[in-house]
Each structure stands twice: as C-alpha cells, then as structure tokens.
Amino acid sequence: MIDIDVALSSLSLSDKCRLVAGRTTWETRAFPDASIPAIKMSDGPTGIRGEGHGGGGTPGVAVPAGITLGATWDPALLREIGSLLGLEARRKSAHVLLGPNVNLHRTPVGGRTFECYSEDPELTAALATEYVRGVQSHDVAVTVKHFVCNDTEIERMTVNVQVDDRTLRELYLRPFEATVRDAGAWGIMSAYNKLNGEFCAHHRGLLTDILRTEWGFDGFVVSDWFGVHEATPAANAGLNIEMPAPVRVYGDKLVACVERGEVTEAQVDSLVRDILVLAQRVRADERSAHDPEESVDDPAERALTRRAAVSGTILLRNESLDGTPVLPFDAATLTSVAVIGPNATIDRSMGGGSASLVPFGHRTLVDAITDRVGPGTSTDAAVTFEAGVRIDRLTPVALRRQLVQPNGEPGLHIEYINGRDWTGDAVVKQTAPSSMVRFFGSTPEGVDPRGFATRITGSFVPDSDGPHVIGVVSTGPFIMDIDGATIINDVQMELPRSQEFFGYGSVEATATVECTAGVPIELNLRWATSEMNGFAALRVGFRSPEPGDLMERAAAAAAAADVAVVMVGTNDEWETEGFDRTTMDLPGRQNELVRRVVAANPRTAVIVNAGSPVTMDWADAADASPRQTLRRSASCPSSPPGETRTPRRRRPRRTPPHDDSSTAG
Q1: What's the CATH code of the domain at 227?
Q2: Which residues are catalytic?
Q3: Stretch 583-589: mean pLDDT
Q4: Taking a C-beta distance cutoff of 8 angstroms, is the pair 404, 461 a contact?
Q5: How far is residue 52's CA from residue 474's CA, in Å, rounded to a whole number?
Q6: C-beta atoms surrounding 93 within 10 Å
Q7: Cβ pair 477, 528 in contact under 8 A
Q8: What is the pTM of this model?
C-alpha cells in the first residue's frame, strides 16, 4: 500500500511537476525511490484497446457502442458491461479506462454521436452511473468525459460554447454530477473546447468550484490528449495530469510558474496527492503497467455483449400491406434468401477514432444468415449476396484475405527502422493484417516512439479485372511502388493536410493501375513518421472498377428470392472522431437501393447499421424495418434557449460525394 504522505514528502518540486505530466502516450511517470508506480491508461469506452500499434494490437472484447447501450434503457445491463470492461482493463494491464463518454446527442450529425448514450441527460446519468460502478468494482478508475459541452467535432479544439447556467446544469452537467455524487467516479477528463470563453482544462469554475467544492469530487482530472495549453491556469483550475508525453505544458514550465509565484507549491502538492490517491485506489503498486497484455475470448462475455446488442436494437416497423407481421421469417418455408447492401459483408460495429480497437473474430450478416438457413442447414436455402451500391468515402482498405506477404502468408510485412531514414537496418519485423497501420503513441518493443521509419512489402490480389484506383493517406512522408514503379511520392510532405487521422493525415493521393483478377500486384511502401504528436498512421486503399449494373443486380436478386434482407448504413469513414457529418442522408445511393429492392420483393427486411440518426424516407414502403445500431437513432433537438456555439473560424462545408461510400479522447 502506498503511503501518500511519505511518497509526497520524498519528491522535489521538479519531481512533482514531472509527475503531473505523462511519461508516454498512455502512462504517468514512476518514481521508484519514492515508491510511486506508473499508472497506465487505455482508450475506451467500447472496449479496452491497450497499447495497440502498427498493424493491430491485442485483440479484446468490443461491447456495443454508447448509442446502442443508451437504447437499452437498462442500468443493470450497463453495470454488467462496466464490470466486463473493468476486467478487460486488468487484462490489458491498464489502471484507468478513458470513458464513459456522457456528452449529449445535441446534433444528429455529430462525429462521435455513436459513442454517447442519449440526448436525454437523465437517461445518460442513470446509465453512466451503473457503468462507472461496474468498472470501478475491479479497482479500475474511469474518466467520465468530456467535461463539458464537447458535443460536436466542429473546431473541437477551439470552439467556444456559450451557455447559461440553468441550461448548463440541467443538461450538460447532469450526467457528470450523477457519476460523481452517486457512483463515486474516480476520474474526469476535461474537454477540448472552451466554455463561456475559458478552455475547459483551465476552467477553475468547472474543475474546482463545481466538481470538487459543490459535488465533493475526490478523484483526479486528466486532460484530453493535447487539450491543455498553459500551465498556470490549468494547475490553478485543478487539472491533475497533462496527457500525453512529451511534456508540453507542465514539467519545467510548471516549475517556473511556481518560482514566479503564479502557482503555489501547495497547489502542486494537491494535484500530486490526487494522483497518489488514484495509484492507491487502482493498486498500481500491485499491478504493473508493464505486465503483458492478455486476450480472453470468453463465451459468457460474448453472450453478454450479444444480449446488450439485442437490447439496443429497435424494430421501427413490422407489418405488410395487409397489416400482418413480416418478421420473424419462417425458416422452414424458405428456399432462397437475397442479402443486399454494402455493410452485409463486413463488420460495422465500431465508428472511427479513439473508441476503436481490434475485436475478436466476428461474423458478417451474410455469414450469419448462411449459417442459420443456408446450404447444409436444415433449411438448405440458397443465399445470394449483392452489394447494390458503394459507400466508401476513400478507397477501401484491403483486408487480410487480399494481401500476401513475400513469404506467402496473409497480410503485409513491416520492417521498422529507428530514425526517419527508411534505408536503415530493421530493428523489428511485424505482420499487418490490413493495408492500414496506426500508432496511438505506442510502438513495438525496440522501436523509438520519437521517430521511426518503415518498409512495408507484400502483394495485393485483385478480385476483378480492370483499372483499380490506389489511394494513400499518410501522416508522414512516403513513397508507394507498384510492381517496381513509383506511382505516388510525397517525400517532402507537400500534400495538404486533411480531416483524416485527427487532422494529421494528408489528402488522399491516388493513382490508377490496370489489374487482372487473381494476379497479384507487388507493393513496396516506404513510410516514416513526421512529428508523432501521439499519433501516426498510413492508409492504403484499393478501389476496383464499379460495375454499372450493381443496383439492377440487387433488384433482380431480390425479385428471385423468397425474402430479401437489406443492410444499409454508414461506416467508420463517415462516423468518426475528428469531424462531423455534413448530412443525415445515407451515403451513396442507398435510399434508392432500398426503394428498388422493396419494389422488387415486398417481403423485405431493412436493417440500418449506423451510429447516429439517418433519414429514412423509404420507411413506410418497407414492410419490416429493424434498426440494428451500434448505436441507436434518437431524435436530437436543436440547441436549447440560452446556448450558442462560436467557432474560432468557420470552415467551408464539404458535400460528400454521392458515388462513393483513430488518439485518445
């Protein structure tokens, strides 16, 4: 057990000012001579990612996203989910879960709407309170986030939310208050935005007057990653930990603030004491942050996540023209089933950004229906699939089945070189399961997180003939070769930055390559980090030629089948941390696809697989419209009286193309 008074007295002012800042992207600094261990944090709230890097990370349990859990209206279920995640955090050697996200659904196009529970502050409060109790029952701390009014991704680092006191307290503060007063939350994460002109990480009225004095909070406050800007106001406000490393605000700058008399050493002691209380609560001296991460795929835990997903699924309408129910389909009568839609052959259980992780194996809708009624089952029905439309916003990332390493194994081969010169000697070799690699501040053992380069080799196996568009989005310099010829080169990082990868990514650079189905094309990428900023990534996509009759084939398949199941929705390119959507409409021609399929076969079930509300002008035409959400759709009222939001500057609105389809916080 940590002796807090002894530990605190063992630290110099410099030590204390370093303790209140992260040592790495995910850990605080340890001081062994003072018996102070490192504390490890991990992204949530839809699972525990751990220190994922490169081609993946330690697989873990993915629970339904917040909007689905909100749709359950079941606090007891949320306590079970929280308990599961507390256990998962221990498996990932994490002491702190960065969640739950209790911001409100204030806009239906919010980029992170899928992470949050509801537009209703009381429902959110009831659910989050039980979630917190479940997590902390395993001696794992939560950080209820984002405190407060971080309900949109537009100019999220600078937006000034102006809101009167009654609106603030009755809507936005209510879930935080409940988790503190009723569940005893051990941690809070401050928001990026300003509240009435003051950055939330510097806001003494929030972090001390309301949180500690009014509500009796006795835990710690951590900044959102890169969300604190000045040492004096942050320290005096009560911000305990600046994350991530390298230190930008606290450390030596905080020492200087104390020496100038802007911050008292007693205030620094108070910040440090809260961290030591945290270390004691999570038993960080007994559970090392450096223990190996573990994956446990437990059937009982799968059953729990399935029960939660089912509980959060909404059946909007279930009647035919004559008023009789359409669902459930009678499997014994089926001879053929048409499965249609772009999301039916790939799992879309998570949005993009810091809430994502590497989940355990899963089945697609096509796989599940085939396993239930397809060939070889007692039903023995024919199951056909047609995409109908495409919805990818960027060129689609290639998955393991279309990638081959030089040794013939699936995936791509990555060689890591310390420093940013990709011609150097490899220090680590690794396999990537897809053509996207991401580093949330962590790197493989032996790779310098402050700067490294990679050589990525292998082949892409096209599944169709014709011209394929190859696209690259990168946070750093790169060269892309296909079959020995350079097709894209951005060594000088001349490509403009975009909204991709939290704003660090380039615009997508593309080239067209003629391909033959089944004939591999050789890939050779050289890529390096720029400034890590806690995040670095490379994304390579491949878009095959689009058949001109995709929708016609889907309608024909529906007409020829006993029943049709259409899955429409979004993906993690449309719903993600970093930017909001620009429209509630489904991307691509999905609305038209539904109408065409329903016209071809009235016995059609439509599944909406989306993380936030979408327009469904076809809902009255479809006999059965289940809403299978990550996630749940909800009516989101406009801003209440007394609230305005003032961005520092206004970006021009971008309209998504109609022919095409994560860091902490």
Answers
A1: 3.20.20.300
A2: 224
A3: 95
A4: yes
A5: 18
A6: 20
A7: yes
A8: 0.91
